[in-house]
Amino acid sequence: MKSFAISGSLRENVGKRDAKELRYQGLVPAVLYGGATQTHFSVSAAEIKTVIFTHEVQFIDLDIAGTKTQAIIKDMQFHPLTGETLHIDFLQLDEAKPVTIEIPIRLTGTSPGVKMGGKLVQKLRKLRIKALPKDHLDTIEVSIEGLEVGKSVRVRDIQVENLTITNTPEDTILSITTSRALRQAEQEARGK
């Protein structure tokens, strides 16, 4: 799993007015929880954008006033009009405790159903998994090699060692459907 280093500075005052002042200075108020105590701090808005706006899952190596810890982003709040990051919650990782995060799905191979004119419809792009931090993956690979038209892949079809997928087993990840052109060709063939 990839990691990204972010440095932050402790916040002395916690409140609406102080948070607004931090945002005006180009900082984002944040909190780190999951350890013995909560830590309120601030991080650079420019530095955090590279972590927030990526499709990859990353562990964050936080350096808060000289104290280093590993965490993940648990929650983010954005301004409804400007899209500015208002607040970030970090969850401190413990090597002995499993953590639940969403991991992107990466499709591998070429489907014979798509080659024959079918349409690939991907309904889930990420899966929620629960595992120890050392067992987390960058992506979950799903092979579409043997998928014909009308077939699908469900969550229950995915098996990964040391991970528990917490999505509903009946959820459809992807399916190969009949394209409009293929349906018209079949109807014309039946009509003749």
From TrEMBL:
Q: Which GO terms describe its molecular function?
A: 5S rRNA binding; structural constituent of ribosome
Query: Where in the numbering of this chain does the Large ribosomal subunit protein bL25 beta domain appear?
Result: 99-179
Keywords, comma-separated and alphabetical = Ribonucleoprotein, Ribosomal protein, RNA-binding, rRNA-binding
- Which GO CC terms are listed, alphabetically? cytosolic large ribosomal subunit
Taxonomically, the superkingdom here is Bacteria
- Report the residue ranges that make up the Large ribosomal subunit protein bL25 L25 domain in this protein: 7-90
Q: Which terms under GO biological process does the entry name?
A: translation
What's this protein's function?
A: This is one of the proteins that binds to the 5S RNA in the ribosome where it forms part of the central protuberance.
Q: Which family does it belong to?
A: Belongs to the bacterial ribosomal protein bL25 family. CTC subfamily.
List the protein's name. Answer: Large ribosomal subunit protein bL25
- The gene for this chain is rplY
